[in-house]
Amino acid sequence: MSALSCAQAMQQFFAYLDRALAGEALEDLETHLDACLACCEKLAFSRRLDGFVKAKLPDSPLPADLEGRIRDALARVEP
Amino acid sequence: MNTPDAVPLAAPTEPGGRAHDNRPRFEALALPHLTHLYKLAVRLTGAAPDAEDLVHETYMKGLAAFPGLREPERIRPWMSRILARLVLDRYRSGPREVAVGDLAELDRFSLYDLVWDEDPLPYSDDLHHDFLAQFPDDEVRRALLALPETYRVPLLLLYVEDLSYRELAETLGCPMGTIMSRLHRGRKILERELWACAKRRGLVRSDDR
What we know:
The complex is a heterodimer of chains A (about 80) and B (about 210).
Chain A: H1 6-11, H2 13-17, H3 23-35, H4 37-56, H5 66-75
Chain B: H1 23-30, H2 34-45, H3 48-65, H4 75-90, H5 103-108, H6 111-118, H7 127-132, H8 137-145, H9 149-161, H10 165-172, H11 176-200
Helix pairs in contact in B: 2-3, 2-4, 3-4, 4-9, 8-11, 9-11, 10-11
């Protein structure tokens, strides 16, 4: 039986998804997840929400003249 | 000059040399990453004109600090770091940001639980998936932009640049524990904003939270 409560496990979800857990903390969470279906589902939702938000990030084509303007500005830098 | 702490700054000129001698090499190394940096800037600011100014200033600061760059092959994360620091300096506490509120309450906030309890789509076979599918792109982006910069910048650097917590800590000049807590709370604020948005749009009837 895991030593972590569900509330404690949920505090570790994002670090787990971000591959930032290691050693005992990782083992404790995985032990809890092995025994707790509710937390597995909540973790899956957190993962899904991350992917959902990433897919909605705005994108914008590079303005055609931006590189030229930056080159011009860099060329004007005084030595 | 406001340059990231972690960027090693050497004297801008070599003995007997001149600062602008660095320019052709800097351009050759840094300009191929312009599209990537512009995309990152758009995502961090949410607005194309702001992103253009930000990228422009990033290149100017990059040229000034370039003599101190010890690993030229890592110029892209180095430039991203300059850009992220500029965002934190420029946009700190913007008017569009939501209040963070009680941190203990925020830490416990669970969009999963609220959707489960409310059950806004009783005929759904995949309630949480179908709930998220109700949000148009612009509402999600608005919720993301409403995050205070201290939470939004690390979260976007994680999403866009796939930085590790250690790299985020170096980039933003704070301890790894702070990064971990900001990434947790940033996502919780985002969940809370999505729930508020669902209420505004009439997707859920709850009026108690």
